[in-house]
Write a structure and sequence with these properties.
The protein is an alpha+beta fold. About 45% of the residues lie in helices and about 10% in strands. Among the domains are: about 5-15 and about 25-225, TATA-Binding Protein, CATH 3.30.310.10; about 415-470, no CATH class; about 470-605, no CATH class; about 610-795, von Willebrand factor, type A domain (Rossmann fold, 3-Layer(aba) Sandwich).
Length: about 850
Amino acid sequence: MGPPPSVSSYHPNSVAPSTPFSTAATPFTPRPADVSHLQPSLQNIVSTVNLGCQLDLKRIALQARNAEYNPKRFAAVIMRIRNPRTTALIFGSGKMVCTGAKSEEDSLQAARRYARVIQKLGFPAKFRDFKIQNMVGSVDVKFPIRLEALVLKHYQFCSYEPELFPGLIYRMMQPKIVLLIFVSGKVVLTGAKVRREIHEAFERIYPILKVVRGRGASGGRGRGRGRGRGRPVARGGRHGSRRIGRQPRMDIDQQQASTTPITDLDINGDSKPFFVNANVTLDQHIQAQTTNLSRYLATLFSLDLNSVEIGQKAKACALAAAWCRHDHKLANNLLRHRRLFTLTEVLKAVTMLDAARQIRVYEKKLKRLELNKIKPKAIKLGKIKNNIDNLNKLKPSNGSASGAVARHIQRWTRTLTKQELEYFALHMPTEPWKKLADIVHFNPTKDFPSLPWFLPFCFGTSAPAETMVARCRDLTNENVNDLLKEFSIPYSHLKQFKEHLNETSKAKIAAKEDKLDTILWYYEDLQCSPVDDIISERLRDGEQITLPYGKLMERLLLCRMLREGESTTSTRYGRRGARNTTSNSSNQPAHPDKAKFYSDLLPVAQAQLEKIKLPLESPVAVIGDASGSMEVAIRTATILSSLLTAICSAKLNFFNDKVFEPAFVPKTLEDVLSLALITQADGSTANAAGLVPYYNAKEVIKTFVMVTDEEENANGTIADGSTTRFFELFMKYRAEIYPAKLVFISFLSHQHAQGQMYSQFVNANVPDVLQFKFNRERPDLTKIDNLIGLLSTGSSDSFDNSLDPLQVEFEQNGIESVITRLVEKQDENSMPMDVEMNKTTAAN
């Protein structure tokens, strides 16, 4: 078989013939210049051939010389020969790729030699369909090039990101060649099928490069520092140089400004920080998935199963990392877990991948403004630069919002149900969908088949008149009860009219709601005697409750307060009108007829309580803050202290300016609620007082739990009469008695506050100190699940006990199988969608 036409038509040292052009030149296809003194030289040729038979790669690797095969890394044999010096990739299907040849003849000769080696090993190899797929040439134009000026003049066909790659990528349309152009004057041409295309492309690009020629080595080298010609280009050149040189320093500054910079992450060691620390970058997530994907996924789902709150950024990074790695199968499986990966996470992930494109848009806009004869306002420039800086923080080192990513997101939206989209349309802002549509480019009909009018609705079109959304939008205070007689409308659509619902409507809602969870979640809105009867009946019929344990506790406290005549309006878990030692502290009479299902609900919560196991190292001591500054949060603090005491069989005391014992030691859920209603907050805050009894008695406690607002303002007095603060006394306890662990349950002013006491331990690098935060003004019992999850995973040993089996399951059964099981488990125990959405919104 002779050489193909593409090989025989050119001699290795031939020069492309000059070609007359009759068409008018454009900036992108200029008239070819005389470049006879400069000729591109071929550096690499990639060719393919079909050997026409199936191959045993292991046998080839064992019997052939200069062959290697590692199927875990690459599913082909890599074989090399010295003459001509080339490399071949040989696949089991019989296809072969030959690279490294410097001429067409060498590529053909090398391919024949590889085929002959395969034949000598006993395979019936043929030599079919030889074809040159790519030619790479290079040339030096002998002068520096101002790349920024080039990208300004030819921005439609240029891509230039010096932070990622020092060269400019120029995509020529005719011939279809990609050029890599460097500031030094070196040009690499790739993508040609025949040698003529390389020469033709260089003839076309050369006059363009002459226009953006730099002024010698000092002005043109150094990555675009040359001033070029004229005032406008000089300004652009200086700005480009500043931006290129400053970028690495900006990243360092960001890390220094971070509260807890993470530099020594190891997915094979402590893998929790990837999902609980907000300072982990997308590139670190990519590295973790590449290094040990099964452990990465096991950590994510173990934390979720233990009710540890996983950061929204961490979930978005997990999804974006899968897309960056082109692991679309993993991304699709993650998206099946609807509770963890919602629209918010999808939008954040896509925004990260789209950051590089947005940066280029802003940079082009910035350069056009700076080159404008009319000087732009500093505020306008500042906003653009600020946007660029913010996007740089999101941008991954590789990966983009490609068409493949967009298609996978489109497939995800096709799985959204009519109920979910209607809920989005009625209760959630449409702006996120508009932002996502701007990047992904949805088709309203194909990508939202369950609700084709949804996307137009997000952009301002009215919903069809016969739909649930249109009906609910027509609801008014006057017609809500009448419409409920005709239609079964989910309560999530009726919340805004709760003050106008009559008892008949409330009873219909309670009877028609699919899950009892929704009625309990909104019980204070629907409270009335008929609703109480319906809840009791559904509980006695054995209907399952899937509310988080923290929310269930909060519902029980609400019911107990209603029955005791406590006010639930001013502060649900906070200060009361009078400070008595009895549970019925207000002047209102008790109402045992209210929340009649309380006695039916209590065993459900008690059963859940008995299932909770915390691997805290025993013995455990819980110290509760009952000082005056805790007045708003005293009930929540008491419930937390009592719950931990009941779960861990811990010792319990309270303190203000001195330590005191609780009225009784809580052992059951009823005890926990009773103690919460009778414990009062008063006096100053002497946290050390709670530790004094254990220090004086030299009693070994292995884990201390401090429930406090950390506003320490008084000393504790130990047996020798000296006074001390908590930090000093705890360090003495660790040194003299036992190196105990410490858990702060801190009631702080906002979520980013650290707390003065916890900060002391952090600054002193004291080991085994954890912190969990509650809002001091609005303490939320629903976060109990997250607290229990944190305590369950706080010890590396206890966390590994739940992590290791799941990691083994991922390795043995595969990602899809395990995630399918987790999704099915989620569906079995899932809360109603409106409850889940409210829970997610509150968490965010």
